[in-house]
Amino acid sequence: MVFAKWLRMSILVGALVLAGLLSQVCAADEIVAKVGGVSLTRYELDREVQKIMPFNVSFHGKVSQEKIDDIRNQALTALLDRAYKVRFALDEEISVANAAVEEELAKYRSKFESQAQFEQALGAEGFNAFRGSIYRELLAKKAESVAVDSGVKVTEDDVRAYYDKNQTMYKRPRQFKASHILVKVDPASSKAEREVFLNKAQDLAVKAAAGEDFYNLAYYNSDDRSKYVGGDLGYFHEGQTVPEFEEALVKMKPGEIAGPIKTMFGYHIVKLVELNEPRQLKFEEVKDKIRQTLEKDQREVLHEEWMNGLKARFEVERFDK
Fold it and tell me: Is 244 exposed, middle or buried (0-12, 13-18, 19+ CB in 10 A)?
């Protein structure tokens, strides 16, 4: 009994010691916001901005001031959400093992030759403040796992009921497996040039029909990247390719060769390898995918409810200009 009490006290003290990282003293101009006393620093905001920025740079490598402001707001929103989760974790006495923090820090350290270089790169933020940021990030993830992920429960009956109600969603259309040889034709080419390409395609079609190895014909003659796998296009469904190509395929039997077929890309010689007729997918074939969908939907609802509750519960102070 005494040992159990001591153990609970040790865990709580450990959590409070680590929580010191969450409320460390920062210069006033380093804090951009607080959520229930949990500080967000400008260093964290800058890092979050840098995560988002690469996905918003234009073709010419420029980013407008309006876009920069929008990115900064996105970054701040993400950090505020994280702080809500951290505040929840502190209230619920959730903590992260020191080993997990060290493991995450090691990923950053590994990019530098020494600890000294690593700390130098951190600049004014300093090692302890950066470590605190890592801790908060891991703590937020753990809080979300406890509050949201643990509440996601989808039963086999749920999955079966969804399948029975939505069977029309799980009808697979006609499926083809085919290979092709493409003789590419430039849309701007002259009539005489197109005639040359057509003759080449006809010659290849004759050779393929006569039994020459289709893989080799494609590898040495096709103008498509699939040439490197002998023209293999893999499996695809009805409606996933250009009309002219599909019209030829539906008239063929496995093993047959057709062409030249003219499309917007040029002339194709096609070999149908396999044909699978439309069919209703069985429950066993789709149950894992359905479960993932239901779990995702349920998780999104739980997450939104949780976050709305946290936002109503904890006060936000903003100090950014």
Answer: middle
CA distance 78 to 141: 13
Q: Kindly give, in sequence order, each residue whose CB lies less than 8 Å from that of residue 27, ignoring residues fewer than 6 positions away.
A: none
Residues 304, 309, 312, 316, CA torsion sign: negative
What is the number of structural domains in the chain? Answer: 2
Query: Can you tell me which residue has the tokens 């209703």?
Result: 280
Distance from C-alpha of 116 to C-alpha of 286, rounded to nearest angstrom: 53
Q: What does each C-alpha distance from 42 to 11, 70, 77, 101, 232 come to in angstroms?
A: 31, 16, 13, 21, 52
3-class DSSP state of 302: helix
User: Domain of 251?
Assistant: 173-277
pTM: 0.65
Of 8-17, 81-90, 97-106, least confident by mean pLDDT is 8-17
Q: Which H or E element spans position 181? A: strand 175-184
Same-domain status, 266 and 209: yes
Going by the DSSP 8-state scheme, the letter that residue 203 receives in this structure is H
